[in-house]
Amino acid sequence: MNLIKLALKNIKYQWLDTMLSVILLAFGLGTVSMLILVEKQTAEQFNKNIKDIDMVLGAKGSPLQLILANVYHVDAPTGNIKVGDARMVTENPTIERAIPLAYGDNFEQWRIVGTDQGYPDHYEMKLSQGQNFQSDYDACIGADVAKVTGLKLGDPFLSTHGLDQSENDEEHAHHHNYTVVGIYEPSGTVIDKLILTPVSTVWHAHEDQEVEKPAEPDTTLTVEKIVIKNNPPTIRKGPLMMLRPAKERVASPNDNKEVTAYLLKKRTPMAQMILPNLIKETNMQLALPAIEINRLSENFGLGMDTIKAIALVIIALSFISIFISLFNALRKRKKEIAIMRTMGATRIKVFCLIQLEGLLLVIIGGALAWGLSRIGLSILSQQLNNNFHYTFNIKDGSLEELYLFGAAILAGMIACWIPAYQAYKMDISKTLSNE
Amino acid sequence: MLQTQSLKYQYPSGKPLVFPDIHFPDEQPALILGESGCGKTTLLHLLAGLRTPTSGNVILGQTNLYSLTTSERDVFRGKNIGVVFQTAHFIPSLSVLENIMMSLYLNGKVQDENKAKDFLNLVNLFHKAFQPIGSLSVGEQQRIAIVRSIIHEPQWIFADEPTSALDNKNTDQVIHLFMEMTKTVNAQLIVVTHDNRWDNVIANKVQL
């Protein structure tokens, strides 16, 4: 026999009185703990995928949508832009690197993204098998894609038009035969959930549809063409060049092709000031991931804070409930405590026993809360995975979570301090004599 | 040896209780008799260190009980005194055996389960060792209370009306147990009662 065993037996004996307190505590702590993990892992995912992407160039529309669609691949794209139009930005000296993204097809809901080698290189992707994509219809697949679809090196697969399951029918089938030439190692980035192929593959895959349309007159590069005709292309350097649109560009055969967006890394901070003016009159927009994600986090955070506040109220109620149940239990157990004192239990021992019972209640509530938060996270993760192929890691923990449980233990001990003190100062003789 | 000197106790209301000096020099059992309301239970609580007297001394062996601090008195009581009350009180969350073992634990004695079982055998309740304490009858509970007060081998055992709630058959059993078990552990039994069924058993008496 020892104090812990006795405290556990006492809790078990009066479980009906304390169950409500423990459930309340578990529910409140579990909710806050789950929100902490959701916030932490969401922020980690956001930051990991932003990874030095300063701007995203895409079709006009919601800038947040542009970011979500092209950086995180969780939303529909805002539209397409012409490669030729985009060159005034992508070839601007203020831009260090521009990574094209062209997509609109999927394989079993996994997005097929046409890009160049700069995209996997940007995320420092390593191949676990095979080689990088080089020719049309070569596909390098992310680790999650490989895991879920079971695609292996050398496997062929057919793409389907659209990005969503509802479009995975015969009507939308392309029947373009891709071949898996590489499988990436897991990276924790968005590429784990993508199928990468040369951008030209996407153009070719959509050529069938485009040939039916009359060719659009190329009006956008008229000025350039004149320049090209009269002057050889030159690459101008220096600060003044940054202020000019790239009028002296050499026309490219791909100028009339379309991409969904470009991920841009700027060379100088001036890019943010100059480039929006350059594209003001076009159908393009530049969105800044950091700003859009901050805005999203603020809105998201407002909802999270509200839920957190409710959960904290529940936690506070649970401590009041623990206090009341211990206080009531003490009234019922007065003689039991007095007998313990008669048998030689010191005041401190009795004080410790009541504190220990409170502490164990909080620990039991905390353990349940931990389990509940993981169950909640797992359900959320399942939902997220179904919709966006993103998941939460239920094995993950956080320092904030530790602080939360630490604070709960402290608050629990404060809540049972009064009943413990009452037991401490109990008059044994009066209690046993029913005075 | 148990001795009191000029022991008085004043309740907040009512006249002060003045107790005669008591001197029980050896290990012989002793009886403190008195009618209801004369202060028997108060005296027992004073002797066992459960209530502080208004004045006077209680000397147990070489120790003046009220010269000790509260926590020292708690420890002294735990190690040297066993108390049995009119109504037995237990820790309801524990089994019969655990309630007995609790006495050893609280006194820092070795928690010898075999010893506890031997004592349960002596009171014919070994078969109930693992039952919840609340499942026992009043008579059985009183027998367990006796075991609990004796298991840690104290020098003095105080019993407050230990048989007043029992029928004759149970009373005989309890008296017999008290006499046998206090002999086993060499403890001095002091019984406070108005129950004259003890008269023939204990010769050493004080009338309040």
Radius of gyration of chain A: 32 Å
The portion of residues forming beta strands of chain A comes to 15-25%
Task: Classify the oligomer.
Answer: heterodimer
β-strand percent of chain B reads 15-25%
CATH class category label of chain B:
Alpha Beta
Tell me how many strands of chain A there are.
12
Classify the secondary structure makeup of chain B into a structural class: alpha/beta
Please identify, by name, the CATH architecture of chain B. 3-Layer(aba) Sandwich
Number of continuous helical runs of chain B = 6
Mean pLDDT of chain B: 89
**C-alpha Rg of chain B (nearest Å):** 17 Å
Q: Which bin fits the share of residues in helices of chain B?
A: 25-40%
Largest chain interface and its two residue counts? Answer: A-B, 28 and 32 residues
Which overall shape of chain B is indicated by the principal axes computed on the Cα atoms? Answer: globular
Spell the H/E element sequence of chain B. Answer: EEEEHEEHEHHHEHEE
The helix content of chain A, as a percent range, equals: 40-55%
Structural class of chain A: alpha+beta
Task: Report the total helices of chain A.
Answer: 16
Element-level helix/strand string of chain A: HHEHEHEEHEEHEEEHHHEEHEHHHHHH
Count of the domains of chain B: 1
Low-pLDDT runs of 5+ residues of chain B are none
Question: What do these coordinates show?
Answer:
The complex is a heterodimer of chains A (435) and B (208). With 435 residues, chain A is α+β, with helices and mostly antiparallel strands. Chain A has two domains: 183 residues, no CATH class; 233 residues, no CATH class. Helices cover 54% and strands 16% of the residues of chain A. Chain A contains 16 helices and twelve strands. In chain A, the strands form two sheets. A six-stranded mixed barrel of chain A has the order 3-4-9-6-8-7. In chain A, strands 2-10 form a two-stranded antiparallel sheet. In chain A, a hairpin with a 2-residue loop joins β3 and β4. In chain A, α2 packs antiparallel against α14. The two termini of chain B are 20 Å apart. Chain B is α/β, with parallel strands linked by helices and 208 residues long. Chain B contains six helices and ten strands. In chain B, α3 runs parallel beside α5 and α5 runs parallel beside α6. The radius of gyration of chain B is 17 Å and the shape is globular. Chain B has a single domain, classed as P-loop containing nucleotide triphosphate hydrolases (Rossmann fold, 3-Layer(aba) Sandwich). Helix content of chain B is 34%, strand content 21%. Chains A and B meet through α1, α12, α13 and α16 of A and α1, α2 and α3 of B.
